[in-house]
Design goal:
Helices cover 70% and strands 0% of the residues. The chain is an all-alpha fold. The longest helix has 21 residues.
Length: 110
């Protein structure tokens, strides 16, 4: 979990730093608020969803490579990734009351 936190913080710092060029203070604050919501929501993903999400979005792996490394079936990995993205999207759209996602599919190795 600490590794995931470090990866999300590094990603967030890079995203904010990249956005500094030509960004006014209001836009920068909005980006920081959005990152805080994403970070809070990402921490509430089930562990396997969070691992898959981190491998794809922070480590740059493909879905297929990440699922193979985690020992997941293709359909399970696709479902977990879709659930994680949906959960994060809903959290960003709501921007409040981020509740943990309950896994629907298998959470252990298939």
């Amino acid at each position: 979990e600490q590794r995931f936190r470090r990866e999300t913080e590094a990603f967030a710092a890079a995203w904010v730093a990249e956005s500094l060029l030509g960004t006014n203070p209001e836009e920068l604050n909005e980006r920081r608020e959005l990152l805080a919501v994403i970070h809070e929501a990402a921490e509430k993903l089930p562990e396997r969803h969070r691992e898959l999400f981190a491998k794809i979005h922070f480590e740059g792996m493909t879905l297929d490579a990440a699922r193979t490394e985690l020992g997941l079936a293709d359909s399970t990995a696709r479902l977990m990734h879709r659930e994680a993205l949906g959960f994060l999207r809903e959290s960003v759209e709501g921007k409040s009351n981020v509740r943990p996602l309950r896994p629907k599919g298998p959470s252990k190795k298939d």
